[in-house]
Specification:
This protein is of the alpha+beta class and about 450 residues long. The chain contains nine helices and 18 strands. A hairpin with a 7-residue loop joins β11 and β12.
Length: about 450
């Protein structure tokens, strides 16, 4: 077993099932992975909530999970109202060998075990199953055990590849078949028009995903973006166990279960699938305002689990050293400390009265806008030849003539279209439009609506 002061280099890879060792492979193709450095003393609940979720791109406090060791010991989140956990608990007819809650080696609490308890040496591995309904199976394998002298306890995302799959996307096997197999074919044969359209359609179905909210491009991986998500998670409170995110469509009321030291936050999420009902869905989430326990959290700056001390003003931010506190004060906490102090005092008042704040429900959270395109990073420029959707199940070819296009009668509230396209003569003739009027616009910068025309070898297919 590694020293509690040792750090581990861990490779986390999505795999098709829980039967294969690293030597046997069985990863998704192409591999979807993250490599991290983390303290062996981090508990499994914090590893799930504040490290794996942000490093991959999963949504915190949305689904439940378990860790399973190579010798079949389960550490399972149980105190939750997540729908996937409820489904598992209701499977009374499952054989014990398939039920992560049953038996003496099942249902152990992840908050009571550390990573070093289950992974000891180079080559050791375990499985992490996120979302027990869909089954996003990750294999964690030890690539290196750092010496105590080399270790500082901090969390670091070292590298990765491929985008995180979409939430509620039916698991690894389905993702391989419905997305990655098409993606691989497109890489091999970019002139296969039918495959390109099938891939675009499969990806576009996930545009409203909780962790997508825009174009879904499986090959994208932004290391800086994931590092920023990790930093944000480390600076936040632990997710609650008693109540996860629940959706209300399009803008209904959700189940609110906030207790002492908690609030219920309502977040609005734009989704074009609900344009005829106002264009927004909402989700409700119970969030902690009480401080994390000092022995069950991480340094807000670096992620170290050792020797934590609370901020003397707000008692809600934790640091492993004065250096980390000084850096985090300048970059983040200075703007938050006063507000956190008020929240802490309110929590103390709740404890004294033994009653939760009556105004803890319906707190307005952020509004998440659907990102149909990035105006500062459009994929195409004026002059590019493209294939574009010109109607239901109809495509044509043309050339980009304008970026960030607006029509004169559009209200100010309507965002610009990323592109205006001049259709070529062949397409104009086919749909019966005079060439001089064959101008359309695309409202998404997405392959389902517009994609680059290969320079050679592509024939238009109706």
């Amino acid at each position: 077993m590694p020293s509690p002061s040792s750090d581990l280099i861990i490779l986390i890879t999505l795999v098709l099932d829980e039967t294969s060792s690293p030597a046997e492979g069985n990863t998704l193709n192409p591999p979807v992975y993250r490599k991290i450095k983390v303290s062996s003393a981090i508990n499994l609940e914090l590893l799930h909530d504040k490290v794996i979720a942000p490093c991959f791109g999963w949504t915190r406090n949305y689904h439940t999970y378990y860790f399973r060791t190579a010798d079949d010991v389960y550490y399972t989140q149980k105190d939750t109202d997540a729908a996937d956990a409820t489904a598992w608990l209701s499977r009374s007819l499952l054989p014990q060998s398939e039920d992560p809650y049953a038996g003496p080696k099942r249902g152990l609490k992840p908050e009571n075990a550390t990573l070093g308890d289950i992974l000891h040496d180079v080559g050791d591995y375990c499985f992490y199953n996120y979302d027990l309904g869909d089954g996003w199976i990750h294999r964690l394998s030890v690539e290196r055990v750092l010496s105590v002298e080399e270790s500082d306890g901090s969390v670091a995302l070292i590298e990765g590849a491929m985008r995180c799959p979409p939430e509620d996307g039916e698991g690894c096997a389905t993702y391989q078949e419905e997305i990655l197999d098409l993606y691989n074919e497109q890489k091999k044969n970019p002139h296969n028009v039918e495959n390109a359209r099938r891939l675009a359609e499969a990806c576009f179905k996930h545009r409203g995903g909780v962790n997508v909210n825009g174009s879904f491009r499986p090959g994208e991986f932004n290391l800086l973006e994931r590092k920023l998500a990790l930093a944000e998670a480390l600076a936040s409170r632990n997710s609650t166990r008693n109540s996860v995110k629940t959706f209300a469509f399009p803008m209904g009321s959700g189940l609110e279960m906030a207790r002492i030291g908690q609030i219920s936050v309502v977040t609005k999420k734009q989704d074009d699938r609900f344009d005829n009902m106002g264009g927004f869905a909402s989700f409700h989430e119970t969030m902690n305002v009480k401080p994390d326990p000092s022995d069950a959290t991480l340094c807000n700056q670096c992620g170290n689990p050792h020797d934590l001390k609370a901020c003397s003003r707000c008692h809600s931010a934790f640091y492993c050293s004065r250096d980390c506190q000084a850096v985090h004060w300048k970059t983040y906490h200075k703007k938050k400390c006063k507000k956190e102090k008020v929240a802490y005092e309110k929590y103390q008042d709740e404890l004294e009265r033994n009653k939760p704040d009556p105004n803890r429900f319906g707190i307005s959270g952020e509004t998440m806008f659907q990102k149909r395109y990035n105006p500062g990073n459009l994929r195409f420029q004026v002059g590019d030849e493209v294939e574009c959707m010109i109607g239901p199940e109809q495509w044509g070819t043309g050339r980009i003539v304008r970026c960030l296009y607006r029509e004169d009668d559009w209200p100010a509230s309507k965002e610009s279209a990323p592109y205006q396209i001049k259709l070529d003569r062949k397409t104009a003739d086919r749909v019966g439009i005079p060439p001089q009027y064959a101008l359309i616009y695309s409202d998404w910068d997405d392959d389902i609506k517009i994609r680059k025309l290969p320079k050679a070898g592509m024939e238009y297919v109706d």
